[in-house]
UniProtKB/TrEMBL annotation:
It comes from the Bacteria. This is Alpha/beta fold hydrolase. One of its GO terms (molecular function) is triacylglycerol lipase activity. GO terms for biological process: lipid catabolic process. InterPro entries: AB_hydrolase_fold, Lipase_secreted.
Length: 410
């Protein structure tokens, strides 16, 4: 199955974003959990993870339908089955073995009678703290899952929202997984408080870094039954699942259009693995000295890219770059990249991998090789869907267009 150019159908997902953007006058209604400190165990229950929730926005169904109709999309008004309530959720998760507070966005349908499925959407790479989903500066379009009758979760990830004082754990499998899984479990307390019945259907969806995080969460759920969760279906797009192959891209010395991603991974691994090496070990000047201010959460990825060079040989310390070519050097980094790749697990739930064939950020071959590895490992409910002719940014919408009816089929 291949996907070709996107059709206008998906545009209505994003029209809704514009329609609702005028409604961002937030109400503040914060609910605190019991004062007793949560107890951290191997797989905490949802009530131990929940900290607080804050209502950010509430829109009744009739108003949503009117807004859709007023913009000439009345044909689709019937798809808006519920009003929506949007919350910031604060919950506990684990970072380097200690408990921290994390956050994310929850969007719930209003006045539901039958139990609704849960969809956890994992977003792509963010650099600026302002872009955390729970900051809610603008709707992503995914919130309309709630209007269609789904409980929607969008984790901020560690490094954003409540945990913004930590450098984001970029492409760290275990921490990424727990940030998602712990939010899924903590949200159960919010459902109960708001009297929103949920079913046992759980969908995971993500693109770019979110694709990687989606498979990380799926792996955690499928390999750790103590969480008490079961994935109904999972869809991941262009996620860079093979970090060793991504290293090969760097080692080639070819120009890379998004050097901010490369710098992000190195700094995150240096921090998370507690190597605490000086940044001059990795980067040439003037780049090494710039890194702390570039990655302080105030700048977008585009702004960071403008301050770096696309030439890996000019970006990286020559000694470090030479060591990347030597199988006996920089072993800690290479082992970390291997450990954070998907080499030792095969998805058990229905899973789709999507990837644009013209992706200039994460090579199409990354998903192809991951798919081949999964199939060789015995995956039986797996599809790989190339999106013909699309790059990293443009493949997202056709993925959604394919994905939505697939989710509805379960």
């Amino acid at each position: 199955m291949h996907i070709k150019k996107t059709s206008p159908v998906i545009k209505r997902f994003f029209i809704y974003t514009l329609l609702l953007s005028t409604l961002l006058s937030h109400t503040s209604c914060e609910k605190e959990a019991a004062a007793a400190a949560p107890i951290v165990v191997e797989a905490p229950a949802g009530e131990d993870l929940y900290v607080s929730s804050e209502l950010l926005l509430s829109v009744p169904r009739e108003l949503l339908q009117q807004l859709v109709a007023s913009q000439g999309y009345g044909t689709y008004g019937g798809e808006v089955k519920y009003g929506i309530s949007v919350y910031k959720l604060v919950y506990n998760t684990t970072y380097l073995g200690r408990e921290i507070k994390a956050s994310g966005l929850v969007c719930l349908p209003q006045h539901t009678a039958a139990p609704v499925p849960v969809v956890s959407v994992q977003h792509g790479t963010n650099f600026a703290h302002r872009d955390a989903p729970s900051n809610f500066e603008g709707l992503s379009g995914f919130e309309l899952f709630a209007a269609a009758g789904y409980a929607l979760l969008i984790p901020d990830y560690i490094g954003f929202g409540e945990s913004k004082d930590i450098l984001h754990l970029y492409y760290d499998q275990k921490h990424a997984a727990l940030a998602v899984v712990d939010m899924i479990k903590a949200a159960k307390t919010l459902y109960a408080e708001e009297e929103v019945p949920v079913s046992d259907k759980l969908f995971l969806v993500g693109y770019s870094e979110g694709g990687y995080v989606t498979l990380s969460a799926q792996k955690e759920i499928e390999t750790n039954p103590a969480h008490g969760l079961k994935v109904t279906a999972s869809a991941a797009g262009a996620g860079g699942y093979d970090m060793v192959e991504m290293l090969g891209l760097v080692k080639s010395g070819e120009a890379y259009a998004y050097p901010a991603y490369l710098a992000y991974v190195l700094q995150a691994y240096n921090n998370t693995n507690q190597w605490n090496r000086p940044l001059s070990d990795f980067f040439r000047e003037p780049y090494a000295s710039k890194m702390p201010s570039l990655f302080d959460g105030s700048k977008s990825g585009s702004a960071i890219n403008r301050e770096l060079t696309r030439d890996p040989k000019a970006l990286f310390n020559p000694t470090f770059f030479a060591a990347l070519q030597d199988d006996e050097k920089e072993l800690a980094l290479k082992q970390a990249l291997q450990a954070n790749s998907f080499y030792d697990w095969v998805p058990q739930s229905p899973t789709r991998l999507y990837h644009g064939t013209a992706d200039e950020v994460v090579p199409f071959s990354n998903s192809q090789k991951t798919y081949d590895r999964f199939v060789a490992g015995g995956a039986r409910q797996l599809e790989f869907i190339p999106i013909e002719g699309e790059g990293h940014g443009s493949a997202f919408e056709p993925m959604l267009e394919s994905l939505v009816p697939w989710i509805k089929s379960f």
